[in-house]
Amino acid sequence: DGLVVSENMKSKNVDVKIPKSELEAEDKGAEEERPRESDSNILDLSSDYPRDKHISIQRHLADLEKLADLREDERKPCPLCPEEKFKACYSHKLHRHLQNLHWKVSVEFEGYRMCICHLSCRPVKPNLVGDQTLSKMGAHYHCIICSATIVRRTDMIGHINRHVNKGETESRFSTVRAPKSSYKVVKESATDVQVLPNHSTPQKTDSYFNPKMKLNRQLIFCALAVLAGERKPIECLDAFGATGIMGLQWAKHLRSSVKVTINDCNENSVTMIKENCHLNKMKVKLNSREEDNGETVGNGEENSDTIEVTKMDANVVMHLRSFDFIHLDPFGTSVNYLDSAFRNVRNLGIVSLTSTDISSLYAKAQHVALRHYGCNIVRTEYYKELAARAVIAAVTRAAARCNKGIEVLLAVALEHFVLVVVRVLRGPTPADDSAKKVRYLIHCQWCEERVFQKEGNMVEENPYQQLPCDCHGSMPGKTAVLLGPLWAGALFNTGFLRRMLLEAVQYGLDEAQPLLKTLVCESECTTPKHFSTPSPGDENKQEECGVYIRTPNTFAESYLVHGKRKSEEVLRGTAKRQRAEHSAEHPPFYYNIHRHSIKGMNMPKLNKFLNYLSEAGYRVSRTHFDPMGVRTNAPLAQFKTVLMKYSTPTYVGAQAEGPVHLPGEVQVGEEVPAAAVIRVEEAELAEDDKSGVAAAVFTESYPTHCAAE
């Protein structure tokens, strides 16, 4: 309406003369008469807006024209432009200037218009050619909330949206939490949580909720459910609560088996955790006091639906109290919290950590991995398992500093995170045994063969002799690199994984079940066709860490006190059985079938290739680290031999898939010299410089090399 009135006044050539005192009275009266919108998602700024707001922020174009004091017979300058940029002119020209240059490109926010300003509010860097700042003034916008100056209009719109998402809708940096109507309720595993609209791309002071980490939360829940079946009740800690969804899932499904503590150092996150507890009908315990919408529960009364919420640094809360289960999920690496986690964790407890610093762990930022984990890594075909072993090595060293050892129960490396779950063994002897499993890895950069360095401190004359390949003898220069230190032990505990699978089936965690089945097959190094669904009756046979684990069917073992060490005789017998089990643990690392495929040959299907390796007498399984990876104890030379035997030439498209009979009569079970494999790779490199049917020539020449050897 203000715009129409001003245009009518201009068309009638009416001189508008408003005294300055009358203008101030009208502005003051208008501010007092503006109602405050309580139902809006964003707070109204009219009553709380500062009196000294910038002149470029106005409600109507008429208000902007009043600042110019338009008069028909006088030249007036633009109030938002310096005289060097826009000289004084008559009212009709100034009106078009204000409307087209300032008003049309403004940014609107709750009835206010932030017009573009050309005054010298924002410093402009002088031009290198000369001082041309007068000809190129810095056009900018003034933020209505924080008084910041933004150059681009799109950046100003995004700047205002970030203020709205964070709840900062009052001026002068007075932070106010967004109203409940602007929250979004997300449901996961029968648990409701409130999240901010920018939960997927949060700011530094916001709570983070990532829907892609649902699988990670389900795996951690299964691990906690297994521990809750061993002893009750257990005290568990979610050190980085954010929205509190993980701790809420623990308390909602496991009930009286767990005592949940959710911690976060951000005040806004702690407030959101409390609201999410009330949303899920959970009581909140603060400073030995329980709150449930104003109701207080006595200290002597036990309630299974009570969650303790703390606001402090994660290192502090882990130093002050002891826990049976600790989960660390900070932003980035977890190495800064490992010492505190292992200091007070109870014996036979579990520590799980999620590392999201993928760029450093996956060898994209090798200097960061060296700084955080003290580990030298390069990009290899098995880089995901390399990342998991680097994290476990850091965990092992942190536990050893507290005279504790570890047993790795689970290690998962996927696209967005690396999850490691370990059981804590108290005592210097387990700490020494765990520390001995941290070794260096010798990696051949030519054929990607790898082997862990032998135990001992003696320096070998030729470390290349430990590698099964002969690349150093046939290639000039240095062909291998030393990686690590890395964890050289097992990455999985089969009994624990089977019980996790039972818990996933019991609670209906559909996303975790396929991965757990793959992990069980990988830990046993078997194909999925040999996988047997675990039954609760078999779980009483599982032994972990030298102790029997209490399960529903362990009444026959009532002479064992859970959580305590057994007698010396039973321990010695358990150690012997453990040594026999360690000899059959899964082989380290895996081979990518695409990486080692023969050029010009069609390789067999992955499942058929697994059967071929199994028929040759090797242990073989798929791996979750790589969908085309093969975990096997076969050396690389035998791996390539089987792959070559059952590959078909590319030019025979209609030929059925089957073995290629080699005239050299090379048996699959026999050891193939590594030099033959090297010559195969040399032939592959020579094919790049040839034209014609190179695949057929290579297929005919390969058996000749093998027979000659």
TrEMBL record:
**Does the entry feature the keyword Methyltransferase, yes or no?**
yes
Report the locations given in the UniProt record.
Nucleus, Nucleolus
Output one GO BP term. Answer: tRNA N2-guanine methylation
GO CC annotation: what is one? Answer: nucleolus
Specify where it is mainly localized. Answer: nucleus
Question: Keywords assigned by UniProt?
Answer: Isopeptide bond, Metal-binding, Methyltransferase, Nucleus, Phosphoprotein, RNA-binding, S-adenosyl-L-methionine, Transferase, tRNA processing, tRNA-binding, Ubl conjugation, Zinc, Zinc-finger
| GO molecular function list | tRNA (guanine) methyltransferase activity; tRNA binding; zinc ion binding
Region Disordered: list its residue ranges. Answer: 15-47
Q: Which superkingdom heads the taxonomic lineage of this protein's source? A: Eukaryota
Q: Which residues form the C2H2-type domain?
A: 143-163
What ranges does the record list as Basic and acidic residues composition bias?
A: 15-39
Swiss-Prot/TrEMBL catalytic activity: guanosine(27) in tRNA(Tyr) + 2 S-adenosyl-L-methionine = N(2)-dimethylguanosine(27) in tRNA(Tyr) + 2 S-adenosyl-L-homocysteine + 2 H(+)
Pfam families named in the record: TRM
What the entry lists under SUPFAM superfamilies is as follows: S-adenosyl-L-methionine-dependent methyltransferases
Q: Which family does it belong to?
A: Belongs to the class I-like SAM-binding methyltransferase superfamily. Trm1 family.
Designated name of the protein: tRNA (guanine(27)-N(2))-dimethyltransferase
Q: Which organism is it from?
A: Nesospiza acunhae
Tell me what gene encodes this.
Answer: Trmt1l
